[in-house]
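Annex B. Sample input.
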Amino acid sequence: MNLATPSSIAIPETTGRVLKVLAGTTRPLSGREVARLSASPRTTVSRILRDLELQGLARVQEAGAGAALLYTLNRDHLAAEPVLTLMNLKQRLIGFLTHEIERWSIQPHHASLFGSAARGDGDSASDIDLFIVRPDGVAEHDHTWRSQLDRLARTVKDATGNRAGISEISELQLRQFVYERPPIIDELEGDAITLVGPGMRSLTRRVPA
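Annex B, continued. Sample output.
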């Protein structure tokens, strides 16, 4: 799955960017605005908007005599729901990961999504980076714990096509990390999306740096 434009799995990339812009607002937009917001060539956007209008997925209105045409997503269209689902794949990924981890019999102290998947700038070759803190009292090689991590890695691969890059540490190691402040802590504080447990900034405030 292309993590920057996940809709490209089923929709050409530029068309996906145009649809993302239309899906992100109910305000009528001119072709010029759509091109600017989607960072796409105006001529290409004009063609895509005409095609969407022809298919009924975009509604068109005149802003006034001699004014530009204005476009909105036709949310009543039968294809609108699947299109909106594709536009929202990042949130679906977050919900999917949260659901999978919440099913574990041994709950992590913390789990978060970070890196390119969290920022939304990866591609189909990018890992789905996960940061997981093993709770105190659970051994690193505990069979149940390791089985959970292995199952998560397989499930992520099946669901997205991307490899799961799991960074796992213990609560004790986390306290040491926060004290030493390696670069990954700054990255996690900057873009990690909490899936389970306290937020990253809450964790890093608990131990003096």
